[in-house]
Structures are given as C-alpha cells and as structure tokens.
Amino acid sequence: MSLSPPLRRLSSTNSSSKESLINAYEAEEERIINVLSRKLEQLREEKIDLENALEAESESHVNRLSRELSALRLAHQQAVNGSGSTPGSPVDIRGPLANSSLNPLHPNTEALLEALRRENENLRNRLVDTERDYIRVTRLNEVYREELIDHRRRVSAFVRTVDIVGKLTPL
Prior knowledge:
- The protein has helices at 4-85, 109-168.
- It is an all-alpha fold.
- It has one domain (19-84, 102-168).
- α1 packs antiparallel against α2 (109-168).
- The radius of gyration is 36 Å and the shape is rod-shaped.
- The two termini are 13 Å apart.
C-alpha cells in the first residue's frame, strides 16, 4: 500500500503536465488564429484602400482631361467664330490645334485621347496586380487555415489518447 500514493502522485503529475501541454498548445493555436485573422483583415483593408485610391486617381485624371478637352473645344470654337467674323483677314487653315505640340495648354484631341487610353491601361494593370496580390494572400491564408485544422486534428487525437491512457491508468 505504500507504493500506491506515489503512483497516484505520478499519475496526477503526468496528467497535469499533459493538461498544461494541451493548454499551451491551444493558447498557441489561438494566438496563430488571431495573428492570421488580423493579417487577413489588414490585407482586406489595404485592398479597399488601394481600390479607392485607384478610383480617386482615375477620376481625378478623367476630370482633369475633361476640363482640358472642354477648354480645347472652347478655344477651337472661339477661333472658328473669330476667324469667320473678319472676312477680309487671312484665315489660318491649321486652326488653334496645329500648335498643340508646342503649347501644353492646348493639346490636340488625338493626343488627349491617347493619354487617356494610356492612363486607363495603366490603371487597369494596377488593378489587376492588386487583385493578384489579394488572391495570393487569400490562398496563403487558406493554406494556413488548412494547417491550423490539421494541427487541431492532431491535438484532438492527442487529447483522446491522453484521456484513454488516463482512464486505463489506475489512480
């Protein structure tokens, strides 16, 4: 009978160390989940910020180019109206858009359209790159999630084994 109490202490010590190991593992698992969740949320916020910035920048460019186009049209209209009002004066056949390469305030329509197309293409490319990054991070998060699920399964199997061994070991 003198051997029985030390066995009980050993069994309870072993059980408490297993329990503390399980608790530590669960705490680490929860910490990893929290870190990954924060990173995912941060990436989502960054994606939204990038999309908003891209949209604002695109809108700014469109507005600026629209104002420039309106100014060009107005200048062209004034030039056409002005040249028609003085019948005896020589008419510049080239019009106000002929010197557009020399005057940045009056670019020609083709150059303006080409600039808009290039800007649109650049913005689309940036959006595609941002979406690719988001997909990559989402997939990486999925890999981490699967790894976490696998670790949970292992811990669950370990806990069941500890419970079974604990039930089989006499106290």
